[in-house]
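Write out this protein's structure.
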Amino acid sequence: MSKEAVIKLIEAAESNPTLLKQLHSAQGPETVLAIAAERGFQFSEAELLAVMQEKQLSFASEALSDEQLEAVVGGKGKKQNSYTYNTYN
């Protein structure tokens, strides 16, 4: 049981579309632990959550953080303020 096993599961998912889809649709740590156990990966919920936090991953049922939401909608660039000046004569 270790964080390395969690990382190996993530690496395995990168080359296995079926596993990747299962993990992406997981509704919580219990589901991920069950999927991992089926494939021979053994780790604790605490180890899973620690790796997920380090890699900024979340479960399907969780809302996106502000940072994740910005990345999805294209807010990952340099922020620029725009000003509109009106002149009245």
